[in-house]
Amino acid sequence: MIFDLISLAVAVLWDVSLGEPSNAVHPVCWMGSFVDFLWRKRPGRCLFPYGCLIVLSGISLVMVVVSAVYSLSLVFSLPISVWFLKGTFSLSGLLEAGGSIDRALKSGDLSRGRRLLGYHLVSRDTSKLSSSEVAGAAIESLAENFGDGLVAPLFFFALFGLPGALVYRFVNTCDSMLGYRGGDFESGGKFAARLDDLLNWIPSRLASLLILAGAAIVGANWRGGAISALRDHGRTSSPNAGWPMAAMAGVLSVVLDKRGVYRLNLSGRRPVSKDLREAMSILMVAQGLALALFFMWICAGAL
């Protein structure tokens, strides 16, 4: 447990001081390359078992790698563990992405805001989004990514150590690459999508509570966020993403929508760049609360 505490503390310091590792050495990029390689080798049939094989083979590989790391002397195992752990979560990167979009909208450069939104946060077509839609999409993506980009990996790290964080991140990577409807993804990515839903069930709800707590600390409308989360979390196709997004929509008193897909907090007003800035302030506090929670959890396990 002391090893895990030190690993987490150094990984957090790395994040806030150095940011993300380059793609060439980023563990998640390696995971993505592994998934992409196997997916390009997919057969013409039996895609569901093949998708299961991709997920389970990756999990097995993670366990082998972590076992090898733990077998090394402390002088090697600690820095390698820190590097792996840092790759599973993001603190500063999330806020930097939101900040770059906010600056573009404040300057009136909608085209740049659309490009940054598509580059950093969403996979949807951003070319025709209005300024309000860009701000709203950034807000909802930041809220959702707070759950699966920070709370979830650290939740599994607190439970199972580095193997838990890496296995979660691998499953989440599989879902982000394969968990789509239509074509080969319908069958090939189903196992990854369902397993990711299961793993995110508790973290997504915990993320919404942390957003509400952060809102209460900064004096935002946390009660409205609680009402919106309880009422609207089921409007999204994901059983989990709606919780932090609906909570943030209610906290900001804005409506968050994705054209033809969902609308959260229908009574809210259209979001503007100021709401994006407020969302980032709330998330910064929520991040601090999340880190405090997981540090205390790991400390309690060490006693």
From TrEMBL:
Which pathway does this polypeptide act in?
Cofactor biosynthesis; adenosylcobalamin biosynthesis
The places in or outside the cell where this protein is found are: Cell membrane
Name its species: Dethiosulfovibrio marinus
Q: Which Pfam families match?
A: CobD_Cbib
Asked whether the keyword Iron-sulfur is assigned, the reply is no
Q: Which UniProt keywords apply?
A: Cell membrane, Cobalamin biosynthesis, Membrane, Transmembrane, Transmembrane helix
Q: Does the keyword Oxidoreductase apply?
A: no
> How does the protein's chain sit in the membrane according to the entry?
Multi-pass membrane protein
Positions of transmembrane segments = 47-70, 150-171, 279-298
Write the gene name. Answer: cbiB
Q: Where does it mainly reside?
A: membrane
Its family remark reads: Belongs to the CobD/CbiB family.
Q: What does this protein do?
A: Converts cobyric acid to cobinamide by the addition of aminopropanol on the F carboxylic group.
What is the protein name for this chain? Answer: Cobalamin biosynthesis protein CobD
